[in-house]
Amino acid sequence: MISKHDIQKLAALSRIKLTSEEEASVAGDMENILGYVQQIQDVSAQHTGTHVRDTNAPHNVLRADEEPHQSGAYTEALLAATPARHGNYVKVKKIL
Amino acid sequence: MKHDLAHMTIATARELLDRGDVSAVELADAYCARIAEKNPTLNAYLEVYDDVREQAKAADTMLAAGTRHALTGIPISIKDNILIQGKIASAASQMLATYRASYDATVIDRLKKQGAVFLGRTNMDEFAMGGSTENSAFGPTKNPHDLSRVPGGSSGGAAASVAADLAVAALGSDTGGSIRQPASFCGVVGLKPTHGAVSRYGLMAMASSLDQIGPLAKTVADTEILFNAIAGRDSKDATSIDRPRPPTHDKKLVVGVPRDFLEKGVDPDVLENFENSLAALKQSGVEIRDINLPNLKYSLAVYYVIMPAEVSSNLARFDGVRYGAHVDAPTMLEEYLATRRAGFGAESRRRIMLGTYVLSTGYYDAYYGKATMVRELLKDDFNTVFATGVDCILTPTSPTPAFTIGEKSTDPLAMYLADIFTVSANLVALPAISVPSGFANRAGARVPLGIQFTAPYAREDLLFTIGKLFEKANRA
Question: Rounded distance, CA B390 to CA B392, Å?
Fold first, then answer.
């Protein structure tokens, strides 16, 4: 069972504000969905092998730590998308 | 000059352009005129770009200079979650309603180099979450075959744009069926490539281990052309792969059918059409074999644990600080809460919370851990079947034809069940294609149906071969 308290906690963790009607409807939807996905508990087999990836699938691909792009090359394009800026800083509310 | 857009494919348009029978500008104008006429009803496009003519002129310049790539001058539509620098990419969400992309997605970069013409951005379920486009913040798209029905989703606008001749072809994205299911609902071809076959750089992340960009088109041959143009390793996506050269295939094609999976919950018209499709394949020399994928029945449950888990992580970036919507509030925390409240629609909120739940302490092992284990078992199932000499696995694409607008929008679980045949390919990273297979009669309308072939890892070539064979057999 998913209680109203659980939903409020999940909403807080998800950083989403819900009205109390929405809390009730989300609780109902989640009950249904979790009831459905519960069937994976019926699988008794264990996957014994390691998580085998297809041999041609890439694995732990890393880029050499070299040739950085020119400093500031993308600063303006990225800052232009921010809702609020202060010079070359992203502007946010005081945190502490 | 009047153009026959109903029969326009990438292949025919290519001939017309190369012969000089039509210019890229004329072709783009013809599509823009048709969009202006049809889109107010269909809502397939959220925006038609204001520089279509300039793009087409540039393509004409390329053609005049003798540069002819497969897509030079070909007008296509782009799903609203793929970035084109300087253009709005909203993912059909209020969160990004006015967001302009800072860079080009790799697929866009590759198509630009070929001189493709981007007509506009197509409607979708918000952040690609849904199977009907009803989750769009900007109203649903309508199915061109029956306006009372959904076009499928999440790439519903993309499928409708091709079906209604509002684009020659389209780019969509597929996380659990979002290319194939709308393709089947709208009577077009849709390909979900192997995970990694196409770079995801510049595609808004929904569930990264499942997401792929892919083509929608009128024919299998067109789908192949567009796939070839966008596929291949990209240094900006560490999961992308080089395309292996496929082995030559000269033996009889073998198609496996997981019979026991088709017993429950499939519409009788869909089943009948599926049997007819099997008969047509047999007629053209394909061997049909019954197969068993023991864990296939768990795939939807596995998907609805893994997908929301990844969604809850990926959508954490929409916080009103770096881009997109921002709601002012007294504190930082309240700004997060209010921004995400205002920006996300109901389905996005639901999946974020579901993902947060399955990943939380106390539930992680029972849900996410278990689902990840069953996912590996499912991979083994597919590998075992392919190891017996089966080339492709065949199912219907969707258990029902397109449903009516509003029919499932209040019951999320009923909507999820529409993904039952498509999610497995994403879970096991395999390529799958939906090909039109006929029609069902619904209240006087002819509603399209589709069948889905799934191939071994990186074997898109098999999907194209058998898809073309089926197109021919089904036409006969």
Answer: 6
Q: Where are the domains of chain B?
A: 5-230
The residues spanned by each domain of chain A are 4-42
ipTM of the predicted structure?
0.92
Picking from A46, A57, A84, the nearest residue to B196 by CB comes out as: A57
Beta-carbon separation of A14 and B321 below 8 A: no
Query: In chain B, positions 236-275, which contact chain A (CB-CB < 8 Å)?
Result: 238-241, 244
Q: Which residues pair with B255 in a beta bridge?
A: B288, B392
Q: How far apart are CA B417 and CA B300, in angstroms?
A: 8
Which of A37, A39, A85 should be substituted to probe chain B, the one whose Cβ sees the most B Cβ atoms within 10 Å? A37
Average pLDDT in chain A: 87
What token pair was written down for B70? 């497969």
Q: Which of B90, B155, B173, B178 is catalytic?
A: B178
Cβ neighbourhood burial of B330 (10 Å; 0-12, 13-18, 19+) = exposed
- Residue B343: Cβ-neighbour burial (10 angstroms; 0-12, 13-18, 19+): buried
Cβ-defined contact of B356 to A10 (cutoff 8 Å)? yes
Q: Is B398 a catalytic residue?
A: no
Task: Select from B239, B305, B377 the Cβ nearest to the Cβ of A45.
Answer: B377
- Residues B286, B466, B118, CA angle at the centre, nearest 5°? 165
- What letter does residue B369 receive in the DSSP assignment? I
User: Do residues B242 and B455 touch, judged by C-beta distance below 8 A?
Assistant: no
Give domain A4-42's CATH number out of 1.10.20, 1.20.140, 1.10.1760, 3.10.20: 1.10.20
B235 catalytic? Reply is: no
Assess if CATH 3.30.365.10 describes domain B5-230: no
Query: Which tokens go with B82?
Result: 């793929």
End-to-end CA distance of chain A: 37
CA separation (Å) from B36 to B1, B43, B240?
17, 11, 37
Matching residue, tokens 């197109």? B471
- DSSP reduced 3-state for A4: helix
Tens digits of residue pLDDT in B69-119: 999 999 999 999 999 999 999 999 999 999 999 999 999 999 999 999 999
